[in-house]
Amino acid sequence: MSGTLDPYFWTHLVLQLGANEPAVKHALVAISGLFEQVDELQQEVTAGQRLVHQRQALHHYNAAIRELKTQDLKEKQIVVLVVCLLFICIEALRSDVQSAVRHGRHGIEILKAALPNSGWIKDHLLPIFRRLSVSAFYFSDNDGTFLDMPELWEPAPCSFSTAYDAQHMFDVIIARISHLTLVIAETGQTTDVEQEGTKTQTPYFEDHRAEQAIVKNLLEKWLCMFAQLIAKIHHIDASGKRLSSQEQYQKKKMQVFMLTRYEAARIWIEMAFDGDTPKARDRFLPNFQRVLKQLQWLQSQMPPGVQTATGKQSPQFMFEMGFTAIIFYFVSACPYPEMRLEFLRFMQLFGLPKENLWDRDVLMAAGRKIIEDENGIKLEGRERSLTLPSSPGPLIDLATPGSSISTQPTIHPSDFSSPPADFDDFFDDSSTFVFNKTLKSHPWCSMPWSIQIGPRETSKMNK
Prior knowledge:
Elements: H1 8-18, H2 22-40, H3 47-69, H4 77-93, H5 97-114, H6 119-124, H7 126-138, H8 163-187, E1 193-195, E2 198-200, H9 205-239, H10 245-270, H11 278-283, H12 285-300, E3 317-318, H13 323-333, H14 337-350, E4 354-355, E5 358-359, H15 360-375, H16 431-440
Parallel strand pairs: 3-4
Antiparallel strand pairs: 1-2, 4-5
């Protein structure tokens, strides 16, 4: 469920609450049934068996909602927030994007009201809502509620003790980038505003420039501390018990995932005030090349016999955002067709079929259409083993010990709406919605859950 991220929510918190809270227990049983159904799509299961599982999941989903409606929710804010997260997971498994977004919106409102009175919620639930808010924003028609997250300016640590410390700081950085980009988009700011023949600056321009500089500094600090953490992990691994090839690979996968997100964040913060031009795309060629090299290295580290994300034995769903959405960003952002096709291949290799609200097959199809439209090529039957551009520039390599690093509200029971009673509607195929939303929100200079800053300047690039 958690992918490469901290599994504490699933391995400890929900299991402990599920033993004492009926709403949590019912929601977990519903998730278990839906998760099995996703796996059954890869197996030979009769329609009758699937229908039985659907009925069971729906029964427990409704039971969880009834439990919340019969309790004093103000006295159990932790339970309400946890169940809200579980409902988001249920809707993600059902591919009901809009219901998941609605639960996310309610959860964030409750979270903001509860935070001042609970350090526990801040430590254990805020980080999850912070990550989910990014996906929810993308599918919410730019509802700023999702990016106006609390605790964005908490002090950065001096070092990382675990990979989860690095993850936590990076999530805060991403939230700050998202919030800054939203504010700039809403105020229509650019680098300079031409007015009556003179250059003027919009209100708060200097404050936003200062925030951009702070975030860029935080990214550099994060990278240095992450490098130190990886070196420490290598030292511990070398002197401690021998890990299996699968365990070693999972650690490497986490490192590459974090570095891929880092490169995307560098582009997003650099482009916060800029528009979309071919020249701007070329400016980030080294970032694209470094990501490709990291993904190529990760592929080379796959131990023999490891099932990839396309294998039947691998998970078919995870609650957190994984490789799929972030690699799709590079497919849409990178202007070079050869590199785009490599990114597309890595999305298929490392992404899971469903990651939170993202569907890999839908993003694969959207990526192909973007390449065909912008590069003027047809991909059907096209050979995918293409040569990458030469001179890839400095590589950020944290995988090898000693390697150098180039730094360049009020709670209402009605908030919890019931799922559809008709079993034929229980699985709402939102693939068309996701596909259209992805293409509509494509402007590359922002995130794949794009904030519309202005009209997109398109230019087809020849092969």
